[in-house]
Design a protein that fits this description.
about 10% strand, 6-stranded mixed beta sheet, Uracil-DNA Glycosylase, subunit E, about 250 residues, binds iron/sulfur cluster, 11 helices, alpha/beta, single chain
Length: about 250
């Protein structure tokens, strides 16, 4: 019985007892008005991260974000694109791979990393048991192709970054692999180069992030293959440690 029903039942019983024993209604003082507790004195709810307080987070789906990207014209890269390359892979991936932006092949097909650099990336990932169809999600800082394969401009990266932030929140990867200078600098908000940033897991809003060379750079300069391989081995060892920790 809820409190209102209980109060109503008590009032009726009191009325019945008055009539049975006194033959009339007994005079009673009206209950005093109780001030509701002030917000300051009310117990505070434990707060999660800011984005968990945002009701829109709970309605978010990858499809919603993708639909917004498909129609997006927030920066000048929308003018020359054929298709947006939103991203692809599995949900809750152990690894989120982030590159710079779509190239010619990606623009034609609307998929990330499908040209020569993409094929090399697939081989690099496969060497450490990673695969976009099984345990990775692959995307870019900007979702539309910069003309002539130029670097995305700072304002284009900043305009597009909220889509990636939403992908990260939704996908909840265990680690981010940033490919190349543009991805690393944008995600870490730094001016430092890949050479200075690679080699250790860095903190990106509570998520571990590893920087390595972009496959396009490796295709241009073979000497980057070895350090990139060292980075991938480090990534594999890190994932194995996480797996061992979660199975204990
Ligand atoms: S690059 Fe990003 S912000 Fe710019 S038009 Fe494409 S989706 Fe929109």
């Amino acid at each position: 019985m809820d409190p209102t029903e209980r109060a109503e039942l008590n009032a009726r019983l009191e009325l019945l007892s008055d009539w049975l024993y006194l033959g009339c209604r007994r005079a009673r003082a009206e209950p005093e008005f109780q001030m509701p507790p002030s917000p300051e004195s009310a117990p505070r709810k434990r707060r999660g991260p800011e984005w968990m307080e945002d009701p829109s987070y709970y309605a978010e789906t990858l499809e919603n974000i993708q639909n917004e990207v498909l129609r997006c014209a927030k920066c000048r890269l929308a003018q020359n694109r054929t298709y947006t390359a939103f991203g692809e892979g599995v949900l809750n991936p152990p690894v989120l791979v982030v590159g710079e932006g779509p190239g010619a092949e990606e623009d034609k097909l609307g998929r990330p990393f499908v040209g020569p650099a993409g094929k090399l990336l697939d081989r690099m990932l496969a060497a450490v048991n990673l695969d976009r169809e099984k345990n990775c999600y692959i995307t870019n800082i900007v979702k539309c192709r910069p003309p002539m394969n130029r670097d995305p401009a700072p304002d284009e990266r900043e305009t597009c970054l909220p889509y990636l932030e939403r992908q990260i929140r939704f996908l909840r990867p265990r680690v981010i692999l940033a490919l190349g200078r543009t991805a690393a600098q944008t995600l870490l908000k730094t001016e430092r180069g890949v050479g200075a940033l690679r080699g250790a897991f860095l903190d990106r809003d509570g998520l571990p992030l590893l920087v390595t060379y972009h496959p396009s750079a490796i295709l241009r300069d073979e000497s980057l293959k070895r350090p990139a391989w060292e980075d991938l081995k480090k990534l594999r060892a890190f994932l194995d440690t996480l797996d061992a920790g979660s199975s204990e």
